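Appendix B, example 12.
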Amino acid sequence: MAKLQLNSLQKKYTPKAIPVKDITIEVEDGEFLTLLGPSGCGKSTLLRLIAGLEPPTKGQISIGGKNVNGVAPGDRNIAMVFQSYALYPHMSVAENIGTALKLRKISKSEIEARVGQVADKLGLGSLLDRKPSKLSGGQRQRVALARALVRNPEVFLLDEPLSNLDALLREQVRAELKQLFKQQNKPVVYVTHDQTEAMTLSSKVAVLYDGLVQQLDPPSRIYTHPANEFVAGFVGSPQMNLLVLKCEEKQAILGDFKISLPKLPTVPPHIVLGIRPEDIRLVELDNSDAISGQIYLIEELGKENLVSIQVEGSQLLQRKQDKKREKFEIFALENTKIVVRVLISDDNKSLQEGDAVKFIIPPEKMHWFDVKEGYRLN
């Protein structure tokens, strides 16, 4: 067993530069954990701490139950795949793959056997004599993966390994990665800012922001039940609609329409309603229970359109806070806009900008968040 444990990790460079503030995570054998978040959230720093490339300021890193704080990277029995591939240009594919084994004084015959086995698994068998300059981007990426796999490490670390590939090749290699690491049955920690990679590859996703884990859950849970407003807005494309609404009694006000609030201890003066574009339904204009609006933008995506609607009678409310998050005020700017994902059909293919429309937000698809702190309310 090679369980990876991170306990209260912190990395501080200066009093103001703290990319990793307090992170506790466990990754079991066979689990594929993706660290997902925007640039500067601390995900690459966290990976470097696990690899031993940087020491933590506080906290503990354990691999297989052994504390590896202070253990050199080469002695941690981990394998890391970098975004840049980091291949030796003067070496052949076979030599690149077997470099780590050679440094560990493994016999030449065993190196050849292990390199050949991994190369065949990744479709590199016919390329072993080539230099990296003679390989395509996808082939170079496979060589980098092969170099990690041949070591038979306890933990795999991957730092945005697909970001240099074009979209079509990235999709192909992504599918191969999922099958490949499923067979290894080792902890995998994968860093990316690409939501598609995170959702399709992972058994667990840790969404990071400001050096902290905002949510740690299976991908489906993160999508359907985001823990806070940041996760709700970050995960999903197109982005979830997040509307600041005024509350009256037990209802939120959206234009001329009133939406029942979830059960709350007290009704706040304002609340954030989250609704994904694919969960909103356009309905007939004579539907008296629907919300009215006007189309101001249609974005064509092939089999579906993104329809942006100005809600009738509603002003867009925005929040303003000071840096210490103490003072807080809400002000109105313009008409509220809401984005709807519409599958093209005979009923809606004639929609045009400027058309009046009506839509319904199913109550079971609504997400409610605290307007000031952003935590989930339902």
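Residues 4-232 form a domain with the Rossmann fold fold (CATH 3.40.50.300). Residues 167-184 form the longest helix (18 residues).
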